[in-house]
Amino acid sequence: MTPGRRSSTFTRLLRHGFTDPSAAERLLDGPELMPVRDDPVLLEALGATADPDLALRGLVRLLEAQTGSGNGTAHRELLDTLIAAKPLRDRLLGVLGASAALTDHLARHPSDWHALVTYEPRDLHPGVEEFERGLAEATDPVSLRVAYRRCLLSIAARDVCGTTDVAQTAAELADLATATLRAALALAEADAPEDAAACRLAVIAMGKCGGHELNYVSDVDVIFVAEAAEGVAEAKALQAATRLASHLMRICSETTVEGSIWPVDANLRPEGRNGPLVRTLSSHVAYYQRWAKTWEFQALLKARPVAGDPDLGRAYVGALEPLVWKAAERENFVADVQKMRRRVVENIPPAEIERELKLGPGGLRDVEFAVQLLQLVHGRTDPGLRSGTTLDALQALAAGGYVGREDAARLDAAYRFLRSMEHRIQLYRLRRTHLVPEAETDLRRLGRSLGLRADPVAELTREWKRHTGVVRRLHEKLFYRPLLDAVAQLAPGETRLSAEAARERLVALGYADPAAALRHLEALASGVTRKAAIQRTLLPVLLGWFADSADPDAGLLNFRKVSDALGKTPWYLRLLRDEGAAAENLARVLSAGRLAPDLLMRAPEAVALLGDGDGGGLATRGRAHLEQEMLAAVRRAENAEQGVTASRGVRRRELFRTAAADIVGSYGTEASPVEADQGALVDRVGAAVSDITAATLAGTLRAVVRGGWGDTLPTRFAIIGMGRFGGHELGYGSDADVLFVHEPQEGVDEHEAAAAANKVVAEMRRLLQLPSADPPLLIDAGLRPEGKSGPLVRTLKSYEAYYRRWSLVWESQALLRAEPVAGDEDLGRRFTELIDPLRYPAHGLGDEAVREIRRLKARMEAERLPRGADPKLHTKLGPGGLSDVEWTVQLLQMRHGWHEPALRTTRTRAALSAAHAAGLLSAEDAETLDEAWVLATRVRNAVMLVRGRAGDTFPTEPRELAAVGRYLGYGAGHAGDMLDAYRRTARRARTVVEELFYGDPVA
């Protein structure tokens, strides 16, 4: 070889990234590569690897192994394929340049390079089934290791070539671990068939394997759960299961001539190393219910059944998952999690802390702990956060508004980079380590493997430190939701307002009284206090949100009132500063009308409900939860008045929660778009207010009984909801229409029982209307037999006698909405059984009864419509309004409920749907009536929210009318469109009512 050629080759090798070009040149000139040494594609491919020198040495070793394999054509086949097939070339050389350990494997098993030849779409992202096929021929621990490395070879090839990203690679590694655990269990069972027959054993993956985010080399954390096979004693079954589990662990962990796979670590089990290796499901549940520490529930976030009995595995997760999502309710929960994190950092040797990728400050564990803490706090009410995979959970947290989007994006990028570093560090020797190497050669290979080619060591160090810095800054901040997104969307100049600019801006935003608004702004933002600084940051954003409402002046005034009341409360300032959703929700609520701010001002601390913190959230609470809270308050109270006051306080808070959720759902926010299903909004409000009212009556009843009689009233007593209350359709301003029924206790005189029942009713009505900071609850018993002339309370027998002898058809119709809501459940059930034949008469209504209902409806329309009201805009009594739809549905229920069980419901929309399903009206007619009923109900709710008092017609004052329009989705200047749309909807509904209600009887 001439000196000139040598010099040229030497230079080319340097240019392609070789650090020892002399040695590389000798290898290229050697016999193994002689046939292809001048082929340019080989040198290009070697230069593209993480370590060209390592890749070249590995290729020569592999070729030498082909020569020694006894296959005379193997050497030539590999060379030909290498030059001709770019996918194989990139994969094979990529692995050889990144992993000395896998190079060793290929040298020992020279034919395994064929695993990299195929390049079909199904090979790109294999799952558990594909890996199980790859391990299927393993018959002992040694052959299992060989098959495992062969599968690992394909994963590494896709990784280093960029076919899969770091998250996909981690998922594939977890899937391979799953397949390996299954294969190991099969080998253990084959060695001890009698043990396998004696028990059902499930393997639960924990940690990164359970989270579908495994490293190349990592302990595989597991928990074992077992049950006895049929006819086998539990103790014997557990012994058998323990032997199987121990054998599985040895198969994976022990070192053989082919090395080990990875350690199987069962120390996350109850009681750790001191506890039994295998437990029954009931033993697991008992431990977690009584003894488990906070970190153990945190670990269960990633629990996933992977091997053994699948039904038992699913049962394990199903039994323990509810306990996981209650963990955040534990005392000192956040402090415990943060203390655990600090303890991990403290245990790192000082000499290693700066190089520790996983556990050090700004490392992977910081991201994981932060995400898991947020999951445990918010996953209780948001199942979408319950992913065991860190990056998926982070994405879900950002999508749900629990984490700022920019913060989440930066953390995602940092986590991916640090995990990629960890993968490539481990891939080199297939050793379990999380330390960044110190040798320049190792750092160079690591940097190049991550695509950093200009100055790999410097670029790697810079990127690594940058990403750890991001994590250090953000992982604590992640527990707050800063307003970065909102600020970023502001127009230039809007974040800092001079007084004159603020005045001009206020006018442009639609503030009717900019002078007053400026006074509020000055009071809110002036000074050097922490409160003023936070409010200065918020005000430009809030002004925009207020301006999006129909009454921005009211929004700003209400914000000042709330801040004056709570401004010195630390949690309130944190809520405003850090919770973007809370700030926007507050702005919507304060500017949407009078009702919600009035409820809030009575107890301003309820603003916490607008955030996503431990005690907040706008998700409505069910009747059982509310009733439990109110009854607990009554038990703590010293007397009936104090107990009812507490119940009314809960009612006020829950009315605010419901109104706020309704406003946010109707207006929409950055984190929560407008609810598309208007019917769902109506149903939620109706159900929530009805549940609140029922719980309040239950609490009041208990308080009155407890105050007057102790634990037992002389008579059984039940409250029956009527009208909208019984139909779960109450609005914000609705009275509680009820009937009271009682039945003397055994041996109690009827007069004594009646006196007690009447005293209970009188005291309930008095206490619920006492002047206080909480809105009164009016009880209306006007639908009782004989109306206002009849007794307030009757016995069940008295109701039975009355309905048998005197009941009129309108009373039967009213009973369609009757549903027990409080008091003695058995008595309520028997009352329901008593009235069912009346409201669903056998063989339907007679012609005379139908005519009577029609006469009543016509008379009501004529006599009860307020003088001067526009009938076409009256949501209750006007044509196509609530009365039209409800009477039409109720007529269908009374005529056909006896033979159509689905019609036997107190709810209008449910009955309408059932009538359509039964073929009693067309889909188009049902949709028309439903749309009209939902719209009319929405208007009534809007009027109450805007004006603070109930009303059945649209407001006449322009700003109030605009606020109703904004609630219904109409922008500024479109109130006329809203009224036109209502008239159209009502007109179409009236046409259907004319046919179904006033037309000929339906067959």
Question: What does this protein structure show overall?
Answer:
By secondary structure, the chain is mostly helical. Helices cover about 60% and strands about 5% of the residues. α5 (about 75-85) crosses α6 and α19 (about 365-380) crosses α20. The longest helix has about 30 residues, at about 680-710. Residues about 1-5 and about 480-500 have low confidence and may be disordered.
Average of per-residue pLDDT values: 88
Q: Helicity range of the residues?
A: 55-70%
Structural class, by secondary structure, is mainly alpha
Strand content: 5-15%
The count of DSSP E runs of length 2 or more, i.e. the number of strands, is 10
Assembly annotation:
single chain
Radius of gyration: 37 Å
Largest sheet: 5 strands, mixed
Count the helices. How many?
Answer: 45
- What distance separates the N and C termini? 106 Å
Low-confidence spans = 1-5, 479-498
Apparent shape:
elongated
Describe this protein with a few key phrases.
5% strand; mainly alpha; 61% helix; single chain; 5-stranded mixed β-sheet; 45 helices; 1003 residues; elongated; 10 strands
